[in-house]
């Protein structure tokens, strides 16, 4: 549980009691992501009051049926303007589901996804961020229109985007200042560079205003930028107006995912379309989670696999 900024404590507490529509899930694997690091370091607007549970990439076994499930991190309301328009990922009143870094989580049944037989729980947990990559690609023009793709940022999200885009048969260049991350992208069949230029689509997967600007500057005429990386709250980004107008650039946000995209991500992992092991570090127990979050994100892109019942 988080008790404040950079204050994570592992406590023995009673099992959560499932409310109406909820089931108890015994967590087999939960993976860390950049959001967890940010949440630990500087809090998060969606986090409950301290002390708060967290962890949103979670796979486990339903205590009632014994089925292995991915615990999705949200349930859309189904009634707001976005939901009615078929865009649940930008639901105005979603219910967020946190608490994967625990032995058990009480989760809404509506948030659960069946895990394909034989898929490793750590891989299934990673279907959550992979679904966001699937969604980001769905926001971009397809391969026929945009065969040459740049990915800015070689963290886990950039690596997942590159892997999926390579699997689609696109020409992919990933840019990152870390040589280890460029090498990881090359393992997936992408090319790598220190900076991008002249692409049909650019996926921004850094989440900083200067990177948003660099993504726009890396566009070919008529290209599209998909902003995948969330910047700090209240950030402003600035863009050169000339290419937006004279080159008719398309700038699009991509946030989160729809439930079908989570199922698609699980199927892609089961098919071996993404080498999730290349991103997995650990496994570690809950006792080592704070050290893992503090270990920084220099070096290769990695997601820590937490096995909550490992001491
Ligand atoms: Zn995440
Ligand atoms: Zn809604």
Structure write-up:
This protein has 311 residues and is of the alpha/beta class. It is 27% helix and 25% strand. The protein is built from ten helices and 17 strands. Strands 3, 4, 5, 8, 9, 16 and 17 form a seven-stranded mixed β-sheet that branches. β13, α7 and β14 (219-227) form a beta-alpha-beta unit. α4 crosses α5 and α4 (127-138) packs across α9 (259-270). The longest helix is centred in the middle third of the chain and has 12 residues, at 127-138. The chain starts with a strand and ends in a 5-residue tail after the last strand. The model has no long low-confidence stretch (mean pLDDT 96).
Number of helices: 10
Low-confidence stretches: none
Count of DSSP E strands? 17
Our estimate of the beta-strand percent is: 15-25%
SSE topology string = EEEHEEEHEEEHHEHEHEEHEHEHEHE
Q: Biggest sheet, open or closed, and with what strands and sense?
A: 7 strands, mixed
Residues in helix, %: 25-40%
> Which class of secondary structure composition applies to the elements?
alpha/beta
pLDDT averaged over residues: 96
What is the C-alpha radius of gyration, as a whole number of Å?
A: 19 Å
Ligands, deduplicated:
zinc ion
Shape, principal axes of CA atoms: globular
What distance separates the N and C termini?
16 Å
Features:
single chain, 311 residues, alpha/beta, seven-stranded mixed β-sheet, six-stranded parallel β-sheet, 25% strand, globular, binds zinc ion
How are the elements arranged and paired?
Elements: E1 2-4, E2 7-8, E3 22-31, H1 34-42, E4 58-62, E5 68-71, E6 74-75, H2 81-84, E7 95-96, E8 104-108, E9 112-114, H3 121-125, H4 127-138, E10 148-152, H5 156-167, E11 171-175, H6 179-187, E12 191-193, E13 199-204, H7 209-217, E14 219-227, H8 241-246, E15 250-253, H9 259-270, E16 280-284, H10 289-294, E17 303-306
Parallel strand pairs: 10-11, 10-13, 11-12, 13-14, 14-15, 16-17
Antiparallel strand pairs: 1-2, 3-4, 3-8, 3-17, 4-5, 5-9, 6-7
Helix pairs in contact: 4-5, 4-9
The structure holds zinc ion (2 copies).
Residues 33, 35, 56-57, 128-129 line the site of one zinc ion.
């Amino acid at each position: 549980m988080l008790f404040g900024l950079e204050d994570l404590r592992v406590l023995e507490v009673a099992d959560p009691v499932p409310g109406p529509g909820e089931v108890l899930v015994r967590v087999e694997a939960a993976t860390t992501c950049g959001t967890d690091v940010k949440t630990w370091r500087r809090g998060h607007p969606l986090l409950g009051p301290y002390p708060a549970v967290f962890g949103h990439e979670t796979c486990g076994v339903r205590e009632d049926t014994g089925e292995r499930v991915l615990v999705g991190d949200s349930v859309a309301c189904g009634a707001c303007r976005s939901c009615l328009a078929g865009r649940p990922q930008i639901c105005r009143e979603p219910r967020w589901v946190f608490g994967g870094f625990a032995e058990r989580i009480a989760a809404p049944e509506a948030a659960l996804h069946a895990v394909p037989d034989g898929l490793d729980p750590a891989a299934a947990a990673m279907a959550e961020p992979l679904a966001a990559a699937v969604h980001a690609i769905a926001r971009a023009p397809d391969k026929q229109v945009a065969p040459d793709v740049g990915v800015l940022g070689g963290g886990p999200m950039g690596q997942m985007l590159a892997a999926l885009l390579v699997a689609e048969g696109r020409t992919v260049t990933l840019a990152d200042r870390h040589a280890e991350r460029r090498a990881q992208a090359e393992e997936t069949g992408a090319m790598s560079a220190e900076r991008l230029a002249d692409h049909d689509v650019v996926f921004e997967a850094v989440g900083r205003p200067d990177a948003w600007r660099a993504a726009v500057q890396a566009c070919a005429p008529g290209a599209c930028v998909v902003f995948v990386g969330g910047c700090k709250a209240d950030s402003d980004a600035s863009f050169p107006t000339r290419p937006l107008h004279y080159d008719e650039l398309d700038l699009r946000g991509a946030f989160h995912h729809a439930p079908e995209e989570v199922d698609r991500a699980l199927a892609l992992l089961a098919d071996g379309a993404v080498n999730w092991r290349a991103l997995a570090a650990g496994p570690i127990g809950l006792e080592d989670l704070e050290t893992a979050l503090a270990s920084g994100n220099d070096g290769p892109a990695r997601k820590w696999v937490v096995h909550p019942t490992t001491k």
